[in-house]
Amino acid sequence: MSDPHAARRKRLMFQSLRRGTSEGDFIVGGFARRHMDGLTADQLGQFEILLALDEPDLLAWATGVEPVPAEYDNSVMKLILQFKETLSSN
Fold this sequence. Notes:
90 residues, 5 helices, DNA polymerase, domain 1, mainly alpha
């Protein structure tokens, strides 16, 4: 069975790998490489919203410099935070 969201996943992968900074590419792109295929349609929407944000804000939340605002504290942001923790432990 083909993935009805294949084109959407491909676009999001491209966007996640070209964030503008090497840290953004590493964290957000690495997260996408690991989790993209398992994201639900709702989570793809959450990820789209996060990718549309300014990179400094997203990185500040992902690295724990600033708390995640309630409106962006969703399942994908939680997965990004968990992914970042795996990077820190290596």
